Structure of DUF4350 domain-containing protein:
Amino acid sequence: MTATTDIPTAAQVAGRRWRASRAVVFTILGLVAVAIGLAVLRPATSAQFLDPESPAKDGTRALAQLLGQRGTPVQVVRDTAAAARQARPDSVLVVTRFERLGSEQVDQLRDLPGSLILVEPSRDALQALAPGIQRASAGFSDGSVAPSCSLPAATLAGSVAFHRSEAYEAPPTATHCYPSEGLPRVVHLPRGDRTVTVLGSGLPLTNRYLAEAGNAALALNLVGARSSVVWLIPDLPTPGSRSGDVTYDELIPAGVKLAVLQILIAVVLTALWRARRLGAVVTEPLPVAVRSAETVEGRARLYRAHHARDRAADALRAGARERLVPLLGLPRGAAQDPAAEQEIVLALAPRAGWDAAVVGWALYGPAPADDAELVRLADVLDDLERKVRQS
């Protein structure tokens, strides 16, 4: 056995290490990308988001207290039935957390008296409560945005910091405020003796952002426009119950769906990248040269160590048939064809001058009972092949 003298270069070693570790590197980069996507797409939908009774950053207790100090009490309700009982012609109904409302509950709000403020409404809610207004896009903004409209509540408040907000397409009869690429973030729509105001982001109302820019002024001017406020923030569905006809799919935030989609795409691309390539077999030089005799001896030792006399006998007989069948003028595939056994035995017996039963035992007989019988079988096969070649 002789070893090759080729010594790999530094570039070859580096290439091998890169090929061995690139799967791990790409996996880590994919996980980092998914984490960044989750951080960017994660909506502000904690349990306290827009709750007037919550002092948390996402709550709106500060706004409720300011309204109370100005003589506009805030009545917090947790379901649409309570909102219907509290709504008055001189009240403002603020509706939040539409992901917790079903279509039947949204329909209950359609004919309630008083003005209506929809904070981050769903598409179905827009269709039912603010016909003609449609979601267009969602965007992020680090700075404040000027009102650019004639709505008194907006012009008095001035610029507002939305941070994250939906933009809408609205009919010409509506007042378009705080545009983003020509699309408003706040839409004010008159409907008979009431008004419907669509607010694309609830963040300016929260305790965390209320003091920024003109956020507090806009919130007080919109929510406190009448003598009282009914603030609807639906309760979370209890375990095992359903809220109207809200599906579980609707309860999953859009950011989570996009993150799952990204993960699925990454898994598919990784599977395609790492899948077995189809094509010609690529041969590689062996690091050492092994003589055929050593290979045979090594395999024989493995058979002996495992007492695999049956497999050793099968290998000897298959090799003999492969070498003898071409001498008979038969196709090489006949050596492994069970239907050709009798034909091969009858053709070899007269060539070797042996009895057909002996030839059949040598080529197709049972497994040897012990090592001595295996050695005897090997000798018989050698004699059979020698006689056929000499005939």
Observations:
- Residues 1-5 have pLDDT under 50 and may be disordered.
- Residues 61-244 form a domain with the Rossmann fold fold (CATH 3.40.50).
